[in-house]
Amino acid sequence: MPATSTNIDATYQGVVTKAYTEGKAWDWVTVVRNASTGDTATTYTANTQDDDAVYAYYFLNSKTSQYVGGAIRTFLFFDVSSITNTYTVTSATLKVLGYSLDDDGVIPVKATAWGSNGSTSTLGTGDYDAVTFATTYASAITAWNTSAYNDFTLNATAISDINTNGYLNVALLNSSYDQPGSNPSGDFKNGIEFLDGVSDIKVQLTYEVSSGYGNNINGVATADIAAVVGIDTADISLVNGV
Predict the structure, then answer these.
(1) How many of the other CB atoms lie within 10 Å of CB of 54?
(2) Taking a C-beta distance cutoff of 8 angstroms, is the pair 123, 114 a contact?
(3) DSSP class of 82
């Protein structure tokens, strides 16, 4: 069976932010990373160049003498049912257009934003914790490309979820601090360009297409046969058990 690839642009995309300021030192993992809600949520519907789409920071502001910290998480949803309703995906690549900043690594994890199944088209601050930290969908990219696609080769867990659900629901997190749960000591952010128009964020799916029955029937060449007793030749493997 021949392999075919199809690109599907992100159905929904956006970011949720969380920030905190305190005079004395505080624990970033407890207050920011493990927070149940964010402060702001933005759903992108037009081209947006975002310097800090994936962000983790914690430091002492020398001007205010206060400790500040926060995180920003990117959430993406892809409806791939047009493929999975018919075919089984065998491999997939998440392609994210980088922009401007390259301060640290980025890793995709399983998400449950967008109503979990895409029933909600906008992000809310309550989606900040709609991530499964331990369920990574690919290895981190530590050398972030700021002017071209960053390609995440999705793993078996992601492929299974794609085939089972008919969608890919994924969040992009800082890979050094946010995903593993470690206190940052500085400012680490990566830029993403959303809805570029030419190089949109997308998932590239590879799947196998059956070539169907490949022999003549009653002297008629396969190329001239569209169906047998109403069944498409692509869905026929045997005729009368042969």
Answers:
(1) 29
(2) yes
(3) H
Asked whether residue 34 carries a pLDDT value surpassing 60, the answer given is: yes
Residue 203 pairs in a beta bridge with 8, 94
Would you call 122 helix, strand, or coil by DSSP? coil
The pLDDT mean for the chain works out to 92
Comparing C-alpha atoms, which of 66, 57, 172, 59 is closest to residue 111?
172
Pairing of strands 12-22, 66-79: antiparallel
- Nearest to 159, CA basis, from 104, 94, 214: 94
Q: Categorize the per-residue pLDDT at 1 as very low, low, confident or very high, splitting at 50, 70 and 90.
A: low
Number of other CB atoms surrounding residue 70 within 10 Å = 22
- Helix, coil or strand: residue 191: strand
Q: How confident is the model at residue 2 (pLDDT cuts 50, 70, 90)?
A: confident
The residue ranges of every structural domain in the chain are: 3-208, 210-242
Q: Where are the alpha helices (DSSP H) in the chain?
A: 28, 81-84, 156-165
